[in-house]
Design goal:
Length: 636
């Protein structure tokens, strides 16, 4: 299908009977400029701000007028967000706009422009405590999730909607089939995950893009803080001015329930959607950037694995970008895919998308491959073990265990990061211990989530530890560390669907922002050693005592090409990505009791083939510096 590109104000097609539609594909048969645009306030049945009345959330709706006139019901594409007034949505930070009477005029993003003419309603929900809604933001908790779930209930006749924020006049959603698809990037996609995890009836599919699956894992990595503040800071950022004044009790609960010591508390349990994956009824089209350092791919990986265990229908796009919407890195293909996905799951068209390859993976900038299943069926957890090498801190990585008593040591340097460690992998440096394979004789593919089990002895009472997997060799990659996180925004625009003067449906084009590097960090993970025994109760370490911890590394799909080397680096603070511990310890690694479990396509046999007859590496060779590591924006 060719994506429809129209100029703003172009003539709109008249309604056509179903027989005029292409089989298996919705067509733009309804007018956009005549669409019904309305606001509804839905009762959440919660009183989050404690004012004695239940909260109503604002819901802006755009739907085809001709369908309503013909008595035809339409499905709903829904994006529930806290960002419609504070921060905006999309690459151009679009916000909702209204006319003098308070009627919605601009609906951010392209969903309305493209899908309303094709027989869908688009519903944009202001989460509780934001924009025109009552209540309070609770950052992924009951209020956030119920804000959106209540709207799904209203669309299915199970909740009350009103024509105004405070008035008694009710309004019903008698124009919809009740079939809902939720979509959104970041916080919005996170809410979609959370609503799906309630098992609400009527939610047929979700499209989470760069979304959180457990809010603890957004703010902490196994006890180690990832940002300098907690959920209260995000709530303050997105709340409406009115909510900021009336929601101080909720803010206090966020501060008290999310201590900065990294302990898992009941607050985090409420915001963990992974544990409720068994309730999910909706299909899932997930999108994530493998270099997303804001919402890291651990969120995608653990959510995907939990959904797989429940047999949920699912598909994934994995890009080389950071925290970026696929509309801005593969626009044509994405809109085609999304169109067919919603047609199938919301309109019931038998277009076969559910039988197509499960995964699209970006191998190099703008170069994509597909997999029938993801991870591929032949993927097996493969144990690789570090061993000492000819120089201190410069070791080897293979299948044979190190001899008993073998150790390596490093001293935490909070000013260094994974790029510093990788650039000096073949040199003895005090802040890291690195272990590498010989240059591979065949390509070696990692697909899925890794773990690294470490036994470490600290010299002080606190310690943070990092483990990273690195592809050592030259490559052209998306510059995920730059401001655009792998994309460059251009001046010219393309138009997606129909538009009006106030909502054109035209967006700036983008292109890949490419950087040539000498190494690529494939996956990373961090932990606080004081939480190794109990994530709920961290504590001080006993210097000189060995501790064992298993680090969860973020999910990835990466091919280490023949001629490159695969490295495991163990170090302390990963500057810019994890907060340092209160001390800067020297840590000694027990190599015999340390190993990595990697998801290799082909398993141990593939590793054996890729390292067979490998030549020794000339350690006089030097690597050019790779990508710098950015400090992620604290805005999911």
């Amino acid at each position: 299908m060719a994506v429809l590109l129209t100029a703003p104000g172009a003539a709109h097609a008249a309604p056509a009977p179903d027989s005029a539609r292409t089989p298996g594909e919705s067509r733009p048969v309804y007018s956009y400029d005549r669409a019904v645009r309305e606001s509804v306030w839905v009762d959440t049945r919660l009183d989050g701000d404690g004012d004695g009345r239940t909260d109503r959330v604002a819901v802006d709706v755009i739907r085809p007028r001709e369908a309503a006139e013909q008595g035809l019901k339409v499905p709903v594409i829904m994006d529930a967000s806290p960002y419609y007034s504070c921060c905006g949505r999309g690459n151009e930070s679009q916000k909702k706009t209204y006319d003098a009477q308070g009627n919605p005029v601009q609906f951010p993003l392209y969903y309305d422009n493209f899908f309303v003419p094709r027989g869908y309603a688009v519903v944009l929900v202001d989460l509780a405590g934001t924009n025109r809604s009552d209540g309070c933001v609770d950052v992924g908790g009951r209020s956030d999730i119920q804000s959106a779930k209540a709207v799904v209930d209203w669309l299915n006749g199970r909740a009350h909607g009103y024509a105004s924020r405070t008035g008694p006049t009710r309004t019903t959603a008698d124009w919809t089939t009740g079939a809902v698809g939720m979509i959104g990037k970041s916080y919005d996609g996170t809410v979609a995950n959370g609503v799906a995890a309630t098992g609400v009836e009527g939610l047929r599919t979700i499209v989470p893009i760069g979304a959180i699956s457990s809010w603890y894992d957004y703010y902490f990595a196994q006890g180690a803080a990832l940002f300098g503040s907690g959920p209260d800071g995000l709530a303050d950022r997105v709340e409406s001015p009115g909510a900021r004044g009336r929601c101080q009790a909720v803010q206090r609960r966020l501060v008290e329930g999310a201590p900065r010591n990294g302990d898992w508390t009941p607050l985090w349990d409420e915001r963990d959607y992974v544990k409720d994956a068994h309730k999910v009824r909706a299909s899932v089209l997930a999108v994530h950037g493998m270099q997303d350092l804001n919402v890291r791919t651990k969120h995608f990986g653990q959510w995907w694995d939990a959904l797989a265990e429940q047999g949920v229908e699912r598909k994934v796009w994995l890009s080389q970008a950071g925290h970026v919407d696929p509309f801005d890195f593969r626009r044509d293909a994405w809109v085609r895919t999304l169109h067919r996905w919603f047609d199938h799951y919301l309109l019931g068209y038998a277009n076969g998308i559910e039988r197509e390859p499960m995964a699209d993976v970006e191998r190099a900038p703008d170069q994509w491959s597909t997999d029938r299943l993801w991870p591929p069926r032949t993927t097996r957890a493969t144990t690789l073990r570090p061993a000492a090498g000819p120089l201190p801190g410069v070791g080897t990585l293979g299948t044979e265990p190190a001899p008993p008593g073998a150790t390596e040591s490093f001293t935490d340097d909070p000013k260094q990061n994974e790029s510093d460690w990788s650039a000096h992998i073949d040199r003895t440096t005090p802040a890291k211990a690195g272990f590498t394979t010989r240059p591979l004789t065949r390509d070696l593919r990692l697909s899925g989530s890794s773990t690294v089990r470490l036994t470490l002895t600290p010299s002080t009472a606190s310690a943070h530890v990092s483990a990273v997997l690195v592809d050592l060799g030259p490559a052209a990659v998306r510059d995920y560390a730059d401001a655009g996180e792998g994309i460059r925004t251009l001046a010219d625009r393309t138009c997606w669907g129909s538009g009006t003067t106030a909502d054109t449906g035209c967006f700036k084009r983008t292109e890949a922002d490419v950087e040539n590097v000498a190494h690529t960090v494939v996956s990373r993970g961090w932990a606080d050693l004081g939480h190794a025994a109990d994530l709920s109760h961290g504590g001080p370490l006993t210097p000189g005592t060995p501790y064992t911890v298993t680090l969860d590394l973020a999910a990835t799909d990466h091919v280490v090409p023949a001629g490159h080397r695969l490295a495991l680096i163990v170090a302390g603070t990963d500057a810019g990505l994890v907060e340092p511990a209160s001390t800067t310890p020297r840590l000694t690694i027990d190599l015999r009791r340390t190993w990595a479990s990697l998801p290799l396509v082909g398993g141990p046999a593939a590793f054996s083939r890729a390292t067979r007859d490998a030549r020794p590496y000339d350690r006089d060779d030097t690597l050019r510096p790779g990508l710098r590591v950015p400090v992620p924006l604290h805005l999911p």
